[in-house]
Amino acid sequence: MDVRGVTLSIGLSTTTTEPGLTGGHLDGIGVYSRALLHELPQAGVAVAPYSFGPAARLSVGQPMRHPFPLATLRDLALPGAREHMDVDLYHATDYRIIRMDRPIVATLHDALPIAHPEWCNPKLRKLKNWLQVKAARKADHVIAHTHFTIAELVQCFGVDERRISVVPCGVDEAWLEAPDAAEVDATLARHGLRPGYFLTVGTIQPRKNTARVLQAYLGLPASVRAQRQLVIVGAPGWRCEELVAQIRAAQQNGENVVWLSKLTSSAELRHVYAGAGVFVFPSLYEGFGIPIVEAFGSGVPVIASNTTSVPEVTAGAAIDVDPLSVGAIGAAMLELARDEALRRRYIARGKVRAVELTWRETARKTVAVYESVLKGR
Q: Which of 190, 215, 236, 370 is 20 to 30 A from residue 206's alpha carbon, by CA?
């Protein structure tokens, strides 16, 4: 409900959830957008999904009036023009923002292209930087996922800190319960996995730091590697060629390394988490890090990096390590593999943290942002 006692109508951008545009693979923004699409109605608002893209390829949202490139050019040529929207407020969950005749809330997930250009595809870097700066200026209010991100948004985009609210990401509440054991067994058997493996999840790209995870695993005692596989889940990304070659070389040398470059469904991903013994996530940079919460909810002890937003997300529920230290990553992996009491402690801490970070709670806090913005107009 809004401040006037009537149901709020919210336009929600769903471009990143469209199977016809994403090929069925959702990145973090897509997972976030899909979660809001599902949870916001349960938080008491009416949601109207909108997507940029050819109408024939859209199955989630109704098409915007103009394709995004044309709408952006229109914004530049006619700075006084406003797109009419039949909603109370529009929530842009990615950088595709145009001027509207309604208040705009924008979620800016991080400032990676500006803060760390070395980790971004140079072909898209300048465009992303420009689009995100424009988005920040068009929004009436900005949502960040962590307090860490606020400082970057202020520094890199010039956003007024008073216009930023922190709303963490989360996990579906279904992940807090164990999935069907028979279905987990079937998924693991289909991919040649043995329960208890080391697991890491993320697009294969430099900032995810998967190369050091592989090095740390290969440095473990042979007896541990024989008992526990290293399972890498992630689609190939920018500058992944060297790591892919390293993975292939390890496999050819008989190491228990499995790379799942494409899982067929989110259910399969959940099953793969459920079968893991240790989750390893020493990312070099995150605006949040949804896989951490997925592992917490799945009852898997977590090793995570001690940099950027990650410690804010783990909040003491993971073993924090220096992501640049292969030795530190490996030591934590070995410790959790051998110390059952330690494993149980971190599993319990992770479960508690996951309960605090559900998509339902994300939606509730997001609606509070909508109401605050509308009340202030």
A: 190
Task: Note whether 158 and 214 are same-domain residues.
Answer: no
Whole-structure pTM value:
0.93
Provide the residue-wise pLDDT of the chain in tens; the chain has 377 residues.
455 567 999 999 999 999 999 887 788 899 999 999 999 999 999 999 999 999 999 999 999 999 998 998 898 899 899 999 999 999 999 989 999 999 999 999 988 877 787 777 777 677 777 777 877 888 999 999 999 999 999 998 889 999 999 999 999 999 999 999 999 999 999 999 999 999 999 999 999 999 999 999 999 999 999 999 999 999 998 889 999 999 999 999 999 999 999 887 889 999 999 999 999 999 999 999 999 999 999 999 999 999 999 999 999 999 999 999 999 999 999 999 999 999 999 999 999 999 999 999 999 999 999 999 999 87
Number of structural domains in the chain? 2
Which CATH number do you get for residue 132?
3.40.50.2000
Q: What residues make up the domain containing 363? A: 9-170+359-375
In a domain, 88, yes or no: yes
Sequence-distant (6+) residues with CB within 8 A of 48 are: 9, 10, 11, 12, 62, 86, 87
